[in-house]
């Protein structure tokens, strides 16, 4: 760690761990409800659990992105954070707004639009909070002594993510218009600007972990940004097939969204190629696991499983079923959860001065979460395909079908238990790292650079 002010990243990462743990609790509540054991229903009905599960996910990922930016931007721009104190205020405000929203869901205070359930008054606070973050990062980039492609892409991704929160707040009482704007947020986030954030963080990690030249890594970054915009913007059309929007979206959405996996394929090839080229001799091997794992699993979850239901001919049957949940889990896990866990695994030794890489718990966390999530994806997938056949081909009633599917959720619970054991191992390692300290040397890839450059 070069600058004392980067320490704030630790607190964002600790927040991630707390929110992630809570997210999993709601996951289990829903999985048991699906399996026929909805015992908590009077206190936590399914809709409250689902809104909490989804919003906690988005919150911990955003906290992770912010922490990553507070860590990476000073390093890339070679100057301390512009307003370190503001970063702490902004974190506390973020947590207060988030926790208020989650409590609100349990008292039916919500907007009922998947992923954008946060009530409107809290939306304004989210906007102010994120603006403070963007200004802090923007000023650090602006005043820094270096402007790298990596930091520009990361900053632009964060700025656009903030701007794209706004379409979800456009007032309308027309359901089609409401759905239309909702996708500007949800789709253009995960299949647009969040990919820039991902590209920026991955480029930073790959430069540091593989020792490959910055020029080579950043050239790839341009290609990926290009593919993302080319396909992702009009790819929004894959959500406009059946919501009351004009028919031309069937063509536009089908064609452009079918191109989207290319950006994720590019990322997978990029990660694997750079890891091979740079040799694998950075001491923090497990951080490279998470980084390359993120490149590969995002292709599986977003690229491959997204493609599986993106054509209108297929989506006509799978729309809004558990097939969507199958893809949603693996895509969010591979692309964004693994990304946040990768930057945490890389930054923690530098933030705390302890080199706990390659401990058995760190290795167990990587493999059991990934195997567990793959098994969860399979369970959702089988349940989803069964649902499509029974409900949409055989014409059975929705609730009768749900009863037929209960058994698949026993499988889901088993897989989720394995996954959760890995998350517990990750958190255990996180706690063992202890508190952040100032001024810690960066472990460099052996054989790639002779010595740590003097700060
Ligand atoms: C203990 C682990 C978990 C369990 C048991 C679990 C279970 C569930 C269940 C039962 C649903 C509701 C499906 C429905 O709508 O009927 C759901 C939704 C969702 N979960 Fe999880 N989950 C877990 C962890 C995660 C993780 C780690 C992520 C992200 C990385 C995630 C992302 C999502 C998303 C995005 C949705 C909404 C899916 C959709 O739009 O259809 N979950 N989860
Ligand atoms: C990291 C990137 C991605 C993430 C995190 C992600 C996550 C999700 C989630 C959570 C949903 C459910 C949203 C909702 O109903 O509100 C969804 C829907 C969908 N995704 Fe993705 N996705 C990603 C990339 C992709 C890609 C690249 C494709 C296509 C190639 C794709 C195709 C779809 C389609 C067609 C739906 C609509 C499903 C339906 O009709 O119910 N996704 N995605
Ligand atoms: Fe989409």
At a glance:
It is built from 14 helices and no strands. With about 450 residues, the chain is mainly alpha-helical.
Structure description:
Helix content is 75%, strand content 0%. By secondary structure, it is mostly helical. The protein has one domain (4-433): Up-down Bundle (Cytochrome C Oxidase, Chain A). 49% of the residues are buried. One protoporphyrin IX containing FE binds next to helix 1, helix 2, helix 12 and helix 14.
Please identify the structural class as seen in this structure.
Answer: mainly alpha
Terminal CA distance reads 10 Å
Number of domains: 1
Strand tally is 0
CATH hierarchy: architecture: Up-down Bundle
Listed once per kind, the bound small molecules are:
protoporphyrin IX containing FE, fe (ii) ion
Cα-atom radius of gyration: 22 Å
Overall mean pLDDT score?
93
- What does the overall shape look like? globular
Q: Helical proportion? A: over 70%
Number of helices: 14
Tell me the CATH superfamily: Cytochrome c oxidase-like, subunit I domain
CATH class: Mainly Alpha
Q: What is the fold named in CATH at topology level?
A: Cytochrome C Oxidase, Chain A
**What percentage of amino acids are in beta strands?**
under 5%
């Amino acid at each position: 760690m070069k600058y004392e002010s980067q320490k704030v990243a630790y607190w964002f990462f600790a927040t991630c761990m707390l929110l992630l743990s809570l997210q999993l609790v709601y996951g289990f509540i829903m999985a048991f409800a699906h399996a026929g054991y909805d015992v908590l229903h009077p206190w936590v009905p399914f809709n409250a659990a689902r809104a909490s599960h989804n919003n906690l996910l988005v919150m911990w990922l955003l906290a992770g992105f912010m922490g990553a930016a507070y860590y990476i931007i000073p390093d890339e721009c070679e100057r301390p954070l512009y307003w370190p104190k503001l970063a702490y205020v902004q974190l506390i405000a973020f947590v207060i707004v988030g926790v208020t929203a989650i409590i609100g869901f349990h008292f039916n205070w919500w907007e009922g639009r998947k992923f954008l359930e946060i009530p409107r008054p809290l939306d304004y606070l989210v906007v102010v909070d994120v603006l403070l973050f963007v200004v802090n990062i923007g000023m650090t980039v602006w005043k820094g002594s270096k402007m790298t492609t990596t930091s520009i892409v990361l900053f632009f991704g964060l700025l656009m993510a903030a701007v794209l929160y706004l379409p979800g707040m456009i007032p309308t009482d027309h359901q089609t218009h409401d759905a239309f704007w909702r996708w500007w947020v949800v789709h253009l986030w995960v299949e647009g600007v969040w990919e820039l954030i991902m590209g920026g963080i991955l480029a930073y990690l790959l430069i540091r972990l593989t020792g490959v030249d910055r020029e080579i890594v950043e050239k790839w970054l341009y290609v990926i940004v290009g593919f993302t915009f080319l396909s992702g913007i009009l790819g929004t059309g894959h959500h406009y097939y059946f919501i009351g929007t004009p028919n031309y979206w069937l063509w536009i959405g089908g064609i452009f969204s079918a191109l989207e996996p290319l950006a994720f394929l590019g990322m997978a090839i990029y990660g694997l190629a750079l890891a091979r080229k740079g040799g694998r001799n950075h001491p923090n091997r497990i951080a490279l696991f998470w980084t390359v794992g993120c490149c590969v699993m995002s292709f599986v979850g977003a690229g491959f499983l997204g493609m599986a239901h993106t054509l209108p001919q297929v989506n006509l049957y799978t729309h809004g079923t558990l097939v969507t949940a199958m893809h949603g889990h693996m895509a969010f896990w591979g692309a964004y959860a693994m990304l946040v866990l990768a930057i945490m695994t890389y930054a923690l030794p530098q933030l705390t001065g302890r080199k706990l890489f390659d401990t058995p718990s760190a290795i167990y966390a990587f493999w059991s979460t990934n195997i567990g999530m793959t098994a969860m994806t399979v369970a959702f997938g089988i349940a989803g395909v069964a649902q499509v056949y029974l409900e949409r081909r055989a014409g059975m009633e929705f609730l009768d079908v749900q009863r037929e599917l209960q058994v698949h959720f026993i499988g889901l619970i088993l897989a989720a238990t394995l996954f959760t054991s890995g998350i517990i191992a990750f958190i255990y390692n996180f706690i063992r790292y202890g508190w952040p300290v100032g001024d810690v040397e960066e472990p460099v890839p052996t054989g790639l650079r002779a010595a740590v450059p003097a700060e």
